[in-house]
Every structure is written in structure tokens, then in C-alpha cells.
Amino acid sequence: MTQNKTIMVALGGNAIKSADDEGTAAEQFANVYKTSRELVKLIKAGYRLVITHGNGPQAGNLLIQQEEGKKLVPDMPLDVVGAMTQGQLGYMFTQALGNLLRAENIQTPVAALVNQVLVSPDDPDYQDPSKPVGPFFTKEQAEKLAVEKPNWKIKQVKPESVEKRFRRVVASPQPKANVEVEVIKKMIDAGIIVVASGGGGVPVVQGPNGLEGSAAVIDKDLAGAKLAELIQADVFLILTDVSHAKLHYGKPDEKNVETVSLDEMKKLAEGGDFLAGSMGPKVRACMKFVEAGGAKAIITSLDHAYDAIQSGYGTQIVR
Length: 319
Ligand code: ADP
Ligand code: MG
Known about the structure:
The protein is globular, with a radius of gyration of 20 Å. A hairpin with a 7-residue loop joins strand 13 and strand 14. The strands form four sheets. The chain has an eight-stranded mixed beta sheet with strand order 3-9-2-1-12-16-17-15, with helices on both faces. A four-stranded mixed beta sheet has the order 8-4-10-11. Helices cover about 35% and strands about 25% of the residues. The chain contains nine helices and 17 strands. The protein has one domain (about 1-120, about 185-319): Acetylglutamate kinase-like (Carbamate kinase). The two termini are about 25 Å apart. Adenosine-5'-diphosphate (ADP) binds near residues 14, 241, 242 and 274. Magnesium ion (MG) binds near residues 12, 13 and 14.
């Protein structure tokens, strides 16, 4: 048994919703159970887990519900939608993990936290937001929204020929601090499996009267790396749908990156093989964690989580 090492796990989109899923609650629960079964293997091996997860598809659907339902009930802003999805997914994971653990007579408690992550209002990404969120709009809808929602930035994201080609874009600022980190540390010390920083955390900025929600989306891998750093996790483990970060990705000479030092990974990342918006931020998040003093960061697929921790499988970035 490896005693009490802490693993900060970041779960990607497919941990909750498969590509061809409609997104029903039943489908999401089924995926969360499948994911949780892999995590239980690590818990049984004696590791403490802190779990974070994406919320892209869930927040996307909830934003569509805000748009469609706003004639009947008030629409909620992006920060509140982020908190709502943290609640939704936190509930699903605490229920699934709790049930699976109790079925094995393991009494380790599981709890999820609605978690705020501090960002800077001066983050350069606010000047040129590029993260699309919510439904696609027609030109007419986009023009109407520009009047209705003067704070929204709407960009054309599809070619002229497509009817619904406009979408709201928001900033993706860097996570500076995790507001509830002291609570999370207390929970870890008490032996609780914690679900936190879901969807990258609810982005908040320091306002004149305290913290305020910000209409932004923090990258969940970068927010996970920040939390891993703050709780001094032994390992930061990113679980996605590919077994490795790859060089020459998608080309005939594609090659897995196996165990590399931080310096080696820095050089590899300069080659541009880790694409922006997918593998790029994962590699960057891993490098940040190791740079901040973390011993090891791993990128692999969900089904290899246990092998990655126990046998060194996957892309492993070490000091
Ligand atoms: P998640 O939703 O699990 O957080 P993403 O879908 O954003 O993850 O990123 C994983 C995807 O990154 C892979 O499915 C793959 O298509 C893509 N990708 C881009 N560049 C690379 C690379 N160099 N090596 C491996 N996968 C890559
Ligand atoms: Mg994905």
C-alpha cells in the first residue's frame, strides 16, 4: 500500500459525456459511474484523491436553457451557471463514488464543494476573449443580443453560409488562487475525498465590496494544476481520451511522449504539436505544476489511470 499520497485528478469531457451521447441525466450518471470505478481502484490502493472535472457540455446546455427560458423566468449569468454545473456534477460524483465505496465496505467520505477561483481583472485575455460559450445565434439574434446584453462579446465563429454562425465569447483568464483552498486542505486532512474546482472553478475577481463573479471560463486543467500546487499534491493526473500526449499528432510518424523531464517537455512543447484548446493547455498545466515544485504530472486516458500511477504508463513529466 502506498500510504496517503495525494493525487489531484483532472477529468476531461468524456469522463461525463461520450461524444455521441445526447446528454441525458441517465447517460451522465452512467459515465460518472464508469469513471468512478477507475478512481475507486486508486482509492483502494491507498491514495487520497482530490477530483476536478470539466463542465463544457453541461454549461453549454444550461446556457441554452437560460436563452430559451428567459421569456418565462430570469436567465442566470455565466458565473451562476458555472456554480450550478459544479453542483450538478459534484452531486453525481459524490453519489457514484459513495455508492461504489460503500458497496466495497469502504467508509471513506466523499464531498463536493462549490468552489471559487480568483482571477485578475487585468488578465490580458479579457481584452481579446476567444472562448465560445452557449448556443449559436443567427445574425438577427446576435444584433438583438448586442442591444439586450451590452456586456456580451459576440463573434462570428462559422462561415457566412451557415445560418446560426454567431456565438458569445468570453475570456479564459489564468487562475491566481483557489478561494476555498483552506477548506479543501481541512477536508483532505480529515480523510475526505474532495470534488472541487469543477469547470475550472467559478471565476471571481476582487471588487470594491469583496469577491464578484466574472463572466469568464477558466481552463479546468490550469485550475486543477493551481489547486494541485496549493494542496501540495504528490501527483497531478490529467485523465482524457488519449493514452499519451503525442508528437506529430495525427501524422503517420506520430509518437507517444513517455516519461520526460520538465526541461525536455518544455523543448517538445516548442514544436507546436500539442494543439491549442485541447492538448496544449494540458501540457502547460502539467509543466506549471512541476515548475511550482510538484514531483510528477501525468497525462493519460481514464482506463489507464491505475497503470499510470502504479507502473509509470502514459506521458509523465517529472522534475
Ligand atoms: P478533455 O475534454 O478530456 O479535457 P480535450 O478533448 O480538450 O480533453 O483534449 C484531448 C484531445 O486533444 C485528444 O482527444 C486529441 O484529439 C487532442 N490533441 C491535440 N493535440 C494532441 C497531441 N499532440 N497528442 C494527443 N492528443 C492531442
Ligand atoms: Mg474533450
